[in-house]
Amino acid sequence: MTSLDLAYRHAAYFAPAPDSAAWQLGAQWLGRCPHSGHNLAQPVPEFWEPAAFAQITREPRRYGWHATLKAPFALATHSSPSDLRAHFLEVTAAAHLPIVLDLEVALVANFLALVPRQRCAPLHDVADACVRGLHLCAAPLPPSEIARRRRGGLTARQEDMLAQWAYPFVLEDFAFHMTLTGALDALSNAQKQQLQQHAHAWFEPLLTQGLTLDGVSWFVEDLPGADFRWVERFGFAL
């Protein structure tokens, strides 16, 4: 039995290749590399205390630099990590081409993220394939998790998606985002603006050159509440 057999949850993310500049930018911003397991020095904004910046990025740091394609899930009793890996390969063996995303830094609800400037149909196709293909290995959500997902209020369609796919924000309601901070409710408008400007300057190479989505990454959460770690990256079959 391997550590993957014992892992609490698995997830399908878009994450840049670990040896890329795009990966380094995001991992350093969050202060942790899920590939190496090392903590990294963060680019602290001017006039900010390092501890304050570490706190505001604490929640996304646990998940690692990514955009969710298939939200974290436990393996079904009939599935194994090798079954899941086979489905990752099936998903990425489809006729996907690299997708260059035109991104911007934006406030999404109450947190900061990199998001596409406009809807990208091929990106949604990849996310839909991950949701449908990998769900074959997913265990049903426990009632406590279903209740947690409902706390923010869901539309009728999102309730249907939660029941069918164990996550409400999929398919028509999927929104690609690479999370940069936790909730910013405690910050003033001036602080939020300063933080957004700092993120824009730090991620300028991605904002000007675009970010290429050319694969899907497998991450795991070994124990409840543990940091997510990188397992494997599956490049698109060109």
Could you explain the architecture of this structure?
The chain is built from ten helices and nine strands. It is α+β, with helices and mostly antiparallel strands and 238 residues long. It has one domain (3-235): Cyclic phosphodiesterase (Cyclic Phosphodiesterase, Chain: A), CATH 3.90.1140.10. The strands form three sheets. The protein has a four-stranded antiparallel β-sheet. Strands 4-5-6 form a three-stranded antiparallel β-sheet. α5 (81-93) runs antiparallel to α6. It is globular and about 55 Å long. The two termini are 34 Å apart. The model has no long low-confidence stretch (mean pLDDT 93).
Strand order of the largest sheet: 2-1-8-9
Radius of gyration equals 18 Å
Share in β-strands: 15-25%
Mean pLDDT, as a whole number?
93
Poorly predicted regions: none
Gist?
This protein has helices spanning 3-6, 21-30, 50-56, 58-63, 81-93, 121-134, 143-150, 156-165, 189-202, 204-209, and strands at 9-14, 67-73, 99-101, 103-108, 111-116, 178-179, 211-213, 215-221, 228-235.
Outline the fold blueprint.
Layout: H1 3-6, E1 9-14, H2 21-30, H3 50-56, H4 58-63, E2 67-73, H5 81-93, E3 99-101, E4 103-108, E5 111-116, H6 121-134, H7 143-150, H8 156-165, E6 178-179, H9 189-202, H10 204-209, E7 211-213, E8 215-221, E9 228-235
Antiparallel strand pairs: 1-2, 1-8, 3-7, 4-5, 5-6, 8-9
Helix pairs in contact: 5-6
